[in-house]
Amino acid sequence: MVMAAGLGKRMRPLTATRPKPMIELAGQPMIDHVLDRLEQAGVEKVVVNVHYLPDAIEAHLAAREGLEIAISDEREALLETGGGLVKALPLIEGDPFLSCNSDNFWVDGPSDTLRLLASQWDGARMDALLLLVPHARAFHHRGRGDFHLDRHGRLRRRLPNKVAPYVFTGIQLVSKRLLRDPPAGKFSTNILWDRAIAEGRLYGAVHQGLWFDVGTPPAIPATEAILRDE
Q: Which terminal Cβ of the chain has fewer Cβ within 10 Å, N or C?
């Protein structure tokens, strides 16, 4: 599942005429970076949700080869992250399945990031496995971190007005069990994560490479400059 329905408000004015996933980074649309990584990891089918300027995304995806791509249409109403996953469920065949934000950009560490994440999945213990990056290696990220990780890999939230050592990268492996009994309409995946935390079933894995929060216009040239130096 590739999440591509957001309004891209932080990326204005670039998103006035283009959906955020179609904004170019290092020579190609951001969504293509994600799709390339999925294909390289062995993924064969991808579901992409659309809402804002959906025709541009659909036309771009229709011209792409190598992946089977299905569209989860949210034109009528933007459903947020949790609602978007629930709406797309009939199109998602795998269990567990990968969910990636379309504006992710990462550089692999010693091994393929997505394959490494999959190798750490344990369905007996987990409802979701989130890919995290240490706060110090979250390029251009201005938040205070999202999670703490215990020695078993279980997650707990950052406390209010405190700092947490790990940032969620927007990449996760999700069991359909996480999406059981969801709220109606639009809602955040945070609601489902909080339930999983309470049940001891939300886990994290630490990314070994680089990760970039490309959420604002200045982050684009800043990311490209770092990549040129690599």
A: C
- Residue 230: predicted pLDDT: 59
DSSP lists the bridge partners of residue 140 as: none
Residue 154 is classified by DSSP as B
Q: Six-digit token pair at 10?
A: 């932080």
Helices marked H in the chain — which ranges?
A: 30-40, 54-62, 80-88, 113-119, 189-198, 219-229
DSSP lists the bridge partners of residue 69 as 46
Q: Pick left, alpha or beta for residue 200 (phi over 0 → left; psi -120 to 50 → alpha; otherwise beta).
A: left
- pTM of the predicted model over 0.85: yes
Sign (positive or negative) of CA dihedral 75, 173, 157, 215: negative
Q: For 54-82, b where at least 16 C-beta lie within 10 A, e where not — what string?
A: bebbeeebeeeeeeeebbbebeeeebbbb
Give the 3-state secondary structure of residue 135: helix
How many whole angstroms separate alpha carbon 174 and alpha carbon 124? 13
Strand partners, 227: none
pLDDT score for 168: 95
pLDDT under 50 in the chain at which residues? none
Whether 174 contacts 97, CB under 8 Å: yes
Phi, psi (rounded to 5 degrees) for 131: -85, 125
Element (H, E) at 98: strand 97-101
- Only one residue has tokens 């004015």, namely 13
